[in-house]
Amino acid sequence: MSRNPLIPFGLIAVIGIVAAIIFSVIGLSEQQNIAEGDEGGENVSSLDPEAIAQSCMGCHGQELAGSDTAPGLQDAGSKFSEEELYDIIVNGIEGTAMPGGVVSNEEAQVLAEWLATQE
Question: Is 36 annotated as a binding residue?
Fold first, then answer.
């Protein structure tokens, strides 16, 4: 007796369809949770400026002291106003390596307020 060579392909197709259905159901339940305001666990760094600033350390160096690619931020408050810092964080600086949109607007506001105190 010979085995039907299409059975393995059919089995893979059935597994794929079942997986797609399962992930769709999971996605729909998560969509409902988000719509109801339950986004899961709270993001601990959401309002902690020092935790948010960790996303800046890749370019601005440890302790935000500066690096070869980006200036230090330890005295950013003496160079820029809070509004200017917010604009830089959100929009970046054209013609430089400073990208915009690395953090959310809410986190950008918290970070700008904190950086403005760094003199």
Answer: no
Count of domains observed in the chain: 2
Q: Can you give the residue range of the structural domain that contains 57?
A: 44-116
Instruction: Report whether 95 belongs to an annotated binding site.
Output: no
Q: Using N-to-C axis directions, what is the helix angle for 82-91 and 105-116, rounded to 10°?
A: 140
What was the pLDDT predicted at 45?
46
DSSP state of 62: G
What average pLDDT values come out for the chain (119 residues) when binned by 10 residues? 81 92 84 66 59 83 84 89 93 89 88 88
Compute the distance between CA of residue 78 and CA of residue 73 in angstroms, rounded to an integer.
10
Q: What's the pTM? A: 0.58
Does the annotation flag 71 for ligand binding? no
Q: Do 116 and 85 contact (CB within 8 A), yes or no? A: yes
Is 99 marked within a binding site? Answer: no
